[in-house]
Design goal:
This protein has about 260 residues and is α/β, with parallel strands linked by helices. The protein contains nine helices and eleven strands. Helix 3 packs across helix 9.
Length: about 260
């Protein structure tokens, strides 16, 4: 089931979409500064959570699907690790390349590809990071299944997505539908719930290790009224951080840590 929206801030790339739709989505995210500036809260929360979880994992090879400008996974790069950064947006990947420290450039591979069409050997990665992409794929089931195949035994996945069927998500949908009266949607996104995704995890033999839930401040235009730092303080004040998640029942934004 899909609902029509142009961009709900779920991520920076679309995988497994028809070519014509992929072109539409790529166009949305080619404006790097517009996306990054409008999604500072999500980027900061996701960056903090990924960093906190990844430091307790054993890994060397990481794949970031829909890597955007690299804000989330480049922070993990060391001389002993290798990052594969994959995104549909050429401009996002230029931003990634500009941020890679010269001494570590050999440790980063940048790929401008559709994940579902990209070739990877089975069991290629110890860690996969995928934030905000699941809403935009043709088949979330097939998408998660492919991630399971490219993870090594004992590998980990950090996946972020929105539960659009949660009460908070439905309110955001309502506000989005009002916005679409003036600016029609450019492509459909998936209407998914946590229970849907949890079943996909189970069918692909993935074990849920930890979950962090939060919600954006539900005031239209608040990201233009308050700086990202103030919004981050509000959100973490209400929901805590990944090591101490408070009021999780209010959150429709999920960040999940899984092993296989």
């Amino acid at each position: 089931m899909t609902k029509t929206r142009s961009n709900d801030g779920q991520g920076t790339a679309v995988m497994s979409l028809p070519v014509s739709k992929s072109q539409q989505v790529r166009g949305v995210f080619e404006d790097v500064s517009r996306y990054v500036n409008s999604r500072q809260l999500d980027i900061q929360v996701r960056r903090d959570t990924v960093k906190a979880w990844a430091r307790d994992l054993s890994w060397r090879d990481l794949l970031d699907i829909g890597c955007g400008d690299g804000s989330i996974s480049l922070q993990l790069l060391t001389s002993d690790s290798h990052l594969t950064m994959l995104d549909l947006s050429e401009n996002m990947l230029r931003s990634v390349q500009a941020k890679v420290p010269d001494p570590l450039s050999a440790n980063v591979q940048v790929r401008n590809e559709n994940f579902m069409a990209a070739e990877f050997h089975a069991s290629s990665f110890d860690l996969v990071v995928c934030v905000g992409v699941l809403a935009h794929v043709d088949s979330p089931e097939e998408f998660i299944g492919k991630i399971a195949r490219i993870l090594r035994p004992g590998g980990s996945l950090i996946l972020a997505f929105t539960d659009t069927r949660h009460a908070t998500g439905r309110f955001a949908d309502f506000l989005g539908s009002l916005k679409e009266l003036a600016a029609p949607a450019r492509y459909p996104v998936n209407d998914i719930s946590f229970s849907d995704v949890a079943q996909m995890f189970k069918r692909n033999n993935m074990k849920l290790v930890s979950t962090y839930r939060y919600a954006q401040v539900p005031i239209p235009g608040v990201n233009r009224l308050l700086p990202a730092g103030a919004l981050h303080k509000i959100v973490t004040g209400v929901f805590g951080r990944c090591d101490h998640n408070r009021n999780a029942w209010l959150g429709n934004e999920y960040i999940c840590l899984l092993t296989i």
